[in-house]
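Thought: the user wants the 3D structure for the chain below. I'll pass the sequence to the structure tool as-is, report back what it returns, then summarize two notable features.
Action: structure_tool
Action Input:
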Amino acid sequence: MTHENESTITNDDRGTGDLTYLIEMHQKEIWNWKQKEMEWIKTQNVLDGTKVIVGELSAKIVDLKKEIDRLSEENTNLKIITNK
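Observation:
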């Protein structure tokens, strides 16, 4: 093959067995997987953060329920005392 012929070869002229074509396709595939991995990591981080928030809110709800029960009992006791 002469230099004149080499200059007329384009990316479209390469076959699927061409090494440079395979490398480029592999690089594109790697890039796509890295993009997907970044999305998965982002989603995992959001999920982890949400779990922490839910855990904190659940603990707060339990504490508030205990406080409501305590105040309710105190209110009942005060009603009993004032009615005597």
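Final Answer: Structure generated. Residues 3-83 form one domain. The chain has one domain: 3-83.
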